[in-house]
Amino acid sequence: MAIPKGDKDGLFTYKDYLTWPDDERWELIHGVAYDMSPAPNRRHQGLLTELVTDFTNYFRKEPCDVYVSPFDVLFPEPEQNQTVATTDTVVQPDLVVICDSAKLTEQGCTGAPDFVLEILSPSTAFKDMEDKLRLYESRGVREYWILNPGNHTLLVYSVVPEGSAGAALLMMPKSFCKPVLFTREDHVAPRIFPDLSIDLARVFSRE
């Protein structure tokens, strides 16, 4: 799998990204290209299927949309006057929830989703737990879940403090609060969608 050369610094933009073969999967973070191949394994996809079912059923009656990878999420930097074409960050989270329909485009989403979930794999773990964590926090994602199939845990980052009521969303801080770790014995609800309960034992049993 080969991609064209980037600019003089070896960096890429969404305009470059759109010229790459449709049967290849890439992400760009600050212009750096990350190969998303091979496709996720069966274990990963089984976990994602369980979660997608819960989220999709819940949001049938809510004014938000649920999407799963491959689905492009673009993060232009307004302070750098980046357009869609010149943005240097486009990622494909495993699952996103978007409540502002103005962010949706034919290509995917431009701007921060409200909720992002990533399922760790050996090839993506560092990027998901470091690079993407910093990216999502800095660009305004309200809640970020990291599901770890290896040790059956879920790490939750949110701008809403644990135990806060929905009204707290009006006074959200700009950075994530201290993360909370859940295990397969737990039921967990997104802090920004507290009526959505996920049974982690059932999710992990799908493996």
Task: Report on this structure.
With 207 residues, the protein is an alpha+beta fold. The chain has a single domain, classed as tt1808, chain A (Alpha-Beta Complex). Helices cover 21% and strands 24% of the residues. The strands form 4 sheets. The chain has a 6-stranded mixed sheet, with helices on both faces. Strands 5-4-7 form a 3-stranded mixed sheet, with no helix packed on it. The chain has a two-stranded antiparallel sheet with strand order 1-2. β8, α3 and β9 form a beta-alpha-beta unit. The longest helix has 18 residues, at 42-59. The protein is globular.
Number of domains: 1
> What's the CATH superfamily, by name?
tt1808, chain A
Mean of residue pLDDT values = 89
> Which percent range describes the beta-strand content?
15-25%
User: What is the CA-based Rg, rounded?
Assistant: 17 Å
Unreliable runs: none
CATH class: Alpha Beta
What's the N-to-C terminus distance? 30 Å
Order of helices and strands: HEEHEEEEEEHEEEEEH
Describe the sheet with the most strands: 6 strands, mixed
How many β-strand runs?
A: 13
Under the CATH scheme, the architecture is: Alpha-Beta Complex
How is the CATH topology named?
Answer: tt1808, chain A
Oligomer: single chain
Protein structure class: alpha+beta
Q: Please tally the helical runs, counting DSSP H or I stretches of 4 or more residues.
A: 4
Shape: globular
Strand arrangement across the biggest beta sheet: 3-6-8-9-10-11
Provide the helix percentage.
10-25%
Outline:
The protein has helices at 14-17, 42-59, 125-139, 200-205; strands at 26-29, 32-35, 65-68, 72-74, 90-91, 95-98, 108-110, 115-119, 143-148, 153-158, 180-183, 187-188, 198-199. The protein is α+β, with helices and mostly antiparallel strands and 207 residues long.
